User: What shape does this take?
Amino acid sequence: MSDQLLQILDPTGRKVGPAPRVRREVLRRLLRAMLMTRHFDDRCMKLQRTGKIGFSVPNLGIEAVSAGAAAALDPERDWIAPSYRDFAMAFYHGVSAEAMMDTQFGNAADNNRGRQMPVHFTFREPVRFLSISSPIGTHLPQAVGIALAMKKRGEDGVCLASFGDGGTSSLGFHSGLNFAGVFGAPVVFLCQNNQWAISCPIDKQTASATIAAKAEAYGMPGRRVDGNDVLAVHKAVTEAVKRARAGEGPTLIEAVTMRMGGHSTSDDPSRYVPAELLAEWREKDPLIRFQRFLVDQGVMGEEEIAALDAECAEECAAAARAAAGKGRPALDTIFSDVYAELPPHLRAQQDWCIRHYSSRGEGVDEKGEFPL
Amino acid sequence: MSDQLLQILDPTGRKVGPAPRVRREVLRRLLRAMLMTRHFDDRCMKLQRTGKIGFSVPNLGIEAVSAGAAAALDPERDWIAPSYRDFAMAFYHGVSAEAMMDTQFGNAADNNRGRQMPVHFTFREPVRFLSISSPIGTHLPQAVGIALAMKKRGEDGVCLASFGDGGTSSLGFHSGLNFAGVFGAPVVFLCQNNQWAISCPIDKQTASATIAAKAEAYGMPGRRVDGNDVLAVHKAVTEAVKRARAGEGPTLIEAVTMRMGGHSTSDDPSRYVPAELLAEWREKDPLIRFQRFLVDQGVMGEEEIAALDAECAEECAAAARAAAGKGRPALDTIFSDVYAELPPHLRAQQDWCIRHYSSRGEGVDEKGEFPL
Amino acid sequence: MTELTLVQAVNDGLKTKMREDETVLVLGEDVGPKGGVFLATEGLTAEFGEERCFDTPLSEDGIIGVGIGLALNGMKPVCEIQFQDFIFPAFDQIVSEAAKFRYRSGGMYTVPMVIRTPYGGGIRGGLYHSQSGEAYFCHTPGLKVVVPSTPADAKGLLISAIEDPDPVLFLEPKALYRSFRQEVPEGIWRVPLSTVREVRPGDDAVVFCYGAMVPVCERAAERIAEARGAAVRVVDLRTLLPLDEEAVIAAARACGRVVVVHEAPRFCGYGAEISALIAEHAIDAMEAPVVRVTGFDTPFPNTLEHYYLPDARRVVDALERVLDYE
Amino acid sequence: MTELTLVQAVNDGLKTKMREDETVLVLGEDVGPKGGVFLATEGLTAEFGEERCFDTPLSEDGIIGVGIGLALNGMKPVCEIQFQDFIFPAFDQIVSEAAKFRYRSGGMYTVPMVIRTPYGGGIRGGLYHSQSGEAYFCHTPGLKVVVPSTPADAKGLLISAIEDPDPVLFLEPKALYRSFRQEVPEGIWRVPLSTVREVRPGDDAVVFCYGAMVPVCERAAERIAEARGAAVRVVDLRTLLPLDEEAVIAAARACGRVVVVHEAPRFCGYGAEISALIAEHAIDAMEAPVVRVTGFDTPFPNTLEHYYLPDARRVVDALERVLDYE
Ligand SMILES: Cc1ncc(C[n+]2csc(CCOP(=O)(O)OP(=O)(O)O)c2C)c(N)n1
Ligand SMILES: Cc1ncc(C[n+]2csc(CCOP(=O)(O)OP(=O)(O)O)c2C)c(N)n1
Ligand SMILES: [Mg+2]
Ligand SMILES: [Mg+2]
Assistant: This one.
């Protein structure tokens, strides 16, 4: 059961499974989220190459996983504990390119106050996106706690936790899935199996036949889905969300896809990814497939798609221009939000810092290069 | 497959599966190890009640798991990473009651120099018993490293790692089994599922149908065996050792048993273990079963068994008498073995300590009670 | 007022707060029907049900990770770690996650949780049931670290910790769990965090201590008073992070002679920070070296525990050293 | 002799030792074909094969746990943790296991292993790619902690660490990985552990530092020399645990004025131990407060990294403060 790959659209965009009923509006938003992600990635790549931002993480090839999953959630009651490769989730729910770009720049308007690296976005609106952490897997037991709180209060919200194939080796995967199973917490665990954890291929990550098979160890159902098929992902996550809302507990979904770019803007995947593998997966592009489907089904015309595409490109370009001009966060943001209230020793350090840099000139930026 | 329970002897000692060929000598040693364990436990219980030792961990009901597993190993080439509920492994391989008792007392002859609590035994002879650690599960990845070293050197040794049902939730379980699967390390993971982790029953520990089922998540075979049937345990572990020696990788074995005593000498299980469950399992005692089998098969007579039993009881009593008289370790054992060489700051502290206590009198023992 | 032991005061603090605020939950290994291995959570499941006091699988990473999630979503979890020695599997969740959530999310997500755990020696627990790991945590901005040394403080600080909007590590000196009783106010009773407690007045020297070392230092100060009439001030730090640095510096300046006492190993222990504060802010007022009395820089032994742990005699020796220094 | 950067010197040290001793193994995330994210292990798999330099799954607990097992059974593993910020999932394996094996087994089982990891700021890594966690480890008896600040030391200390019979945490200041080149002896080259390095002579004041702060303090000392002709000694501690305490105390006594510098937050940071040693053993020789220059007591920010990290100006200010103190 957990070995079968759920697919609705084949790589050419042909329906090979029963298409779920998805509203046109949702189909359009799905496409937009995926296009936005691709353009945003492109833009960030350029910004990194020209030294405007330090780092980004490409989503090329895996956009359908995040978009399809995000569409299964209700922003009013659900939570998302995303991974850093989940721009499409934010875009699907209406986060603007500019807000996201502010985080990429860590500028004065960045809602995490320039404290985190690029791609570690945080939002509370339009849906609760848990603040992304670099240490892999830590958010999985947290997602269980978030879900459990809702269960204890008798609410029907769900928490979606997204992570990579590498994340399945982390401590948080084990404790998160184990606790979720025991507590019957309303969580959906979504593993984006893009076959690589930086340079580590999936067969060196685990000897398990599939990632979905790991669900059994925690007494929950495991599903495998074609991660390049946005409708299949959407269907699988929707079903898992339904189970969770109904009090039937957690599900593990493995979305099988392929990271078509580097791990990050600093990574050179040609050192370790076989060219044939890339060639093979290039044929399976999630966007081409979905666009064909939309056109075939008469949901959108080709020109409409081209217009949307251009609109996304322009939104990203404009966002980059805007974000570049916003300046750095104020010096006191180093000290605020450590605690709810500034304790005396931090107040003293803050006062010293502000005095020091105003009398002795700005901090000296001896910025090194981010290797990964 | 992993759901079936391997059983050779039923609770009455009747053969219900094909009995493996086990040498008489081994059968005798198995019985001795189990009897020794029971008497050693008894003795320790009394010692703890009378304040002679601080703590012990009963093995009542689970002796067959450790004994049966130990017998599958070759002391010349194999390693054991035991749990604290594995006295029978040491006794099987010929560790004397006195050596074990020295650790229980933490006396001057204790080979870990009175540094560890009772039940945290360490031996290098007659077989390498890795020093037991209190933090649960930490020895599992270590066992993988031990095994991997042998594999890399082309040796055919195996490492047996033993742990409880509670241990399956630990970090070390996940990283240990995952790395073992990926590296194909010659490890045998033996889970003594005695259904309790202190007061936590197995169904609050994991939602998995069985513990053996967790093997699949790591791409290795999982076996379930009647843990009160010493021959079944012996057979399962022997097969797993054979696989590992042949380069076929790790196995997870779940030995299903029941902790018939408290978690430790300080625990009161009547607070949480249902009486019916105990009654049910009392019928399945591993020693009664095995003794009947030995008598039925003409391996040992009842009198011979009674004599062996008395011999074990006496060895344990004598060991307690001897260990009680050996005094405490020397003061400098506080400072040795922190590093291979004593660094200057520790030498200074050692000198100070010896000077202080010789001028100011002995250390004041304000010993509290160990709660668990 | 009732006379309670420290562990009973913890239990009372939990019950009192759970009665008042239904978002307070207790989770950990064996905290449910068994009531915890030290019985700190005895009776909670019976009174508040399994929904509010529940056992977890054997994973500290899970206990703290799930606790963080509960806190992120409106609950006030009180997580128990059975022994402080077993907290390290959760180290990442505590220092990388709980302590940094508010900061890294620009204040959007916060973690008002308490992590309770028994710590320190005194029960012949050897390497792994005796450690004092406070220094491992006190280097972590975003975390608070609290150590009561009396029943009244245990209850009052615990209630303040539960009400605090930030994550608090609450270290309970297990050697004091049942060593004496004290009157403890009934109902809600708060002791503010980040305040020290003057255990004994005095101006000839000051001893800074916390946890199970407080009664040890008290005894030492009494003996010094008897032996030579010197008045030694004893200060229980109570909250190690954020520390009331001003109070420490003021006491050090007032007395001019300082001894710092803890059970943990000396090197990079918490006492180093106290010495460093004094070396930076009160050195001109010092009339003697700042002396530390601590556990040795070794793992915690078992049989020789009572040679490892600082006792009143060792504190007396150190006090004599600073008092006699010219 | 060849001119190497610090990261090349690490690479050279690994290769040199692996050629000489076939029990030396390298494991970690991406250390194989990719050569590590900083290229410290570049070419190892090509030269020594996958058996001796191999990638692991994404689990630091597994990397260190398996490394311990390899070390217990005759190998000399060099484990890489990709960033020091990600070491915490392995905290339990390091502090509870690697550091305590020899002790708890009465010397029967030992763990001769090295854990290499890049640490510190300088690459705009934000909260989780910039931390200096040395203090978390230096409170752990049984462990050694080494921090090189030059290419020659990096190679020489690394080889000594691999040959050491005890577990060594080897912290590599990533800001210095490629910042300058230096002649590094070819072949086996050892720098003994637990020795300090006098970077610059001087008697007017002394600065204790390590890692990426060493060149910062050198610059500060130069500026002070230029500005006012004061001779400031700069001491690179190099091995933080076990520290050469005698050398520290002697230098402090010789100079009478002390500044301690590190990137990590101040509170309970490593600098506190240096101050405490001085407050206990050299207070009579002090002519000024012992001043610490450190990162702030906050998580590590991203955009404002260069306001967070101590720079030469901050060290100059502190030096002026102690030099001018009367
Ligand atoms: C605990 C931890 N260890 C190491 C890293 C360094 N690291 C960052 S991303 C990554 C690979 C993650 O792979 P995967 O989970 O498959 O996600 P993907 O990048 O493929 O989306 C690694 C090892 C980390 N962030 N956290
Ligand atoms: C990491 C860790 N957490 C908690 C404990 C406290 N503890 C000691 S034994 C135990 C239960 C272990 O249960 P199990 O693994 O089933 O072994 P059993 O005692 O049943 O043999 C617990 C929770 C510990 N030793 N280590
Ligand atoms: Mg991946
Ligand atoms: Mg058990």
User: Anything to note?
Assistant: Residues 198 and 208 of chain C are 10 Å apart (CA to CA). The mean pLDDT of chain C is 97. The domain at 2-184 of chain C is CATH 3.40.50.970 (Rossmann fold). Chain C touches chain D through 48 residues (CB under 8 Å).
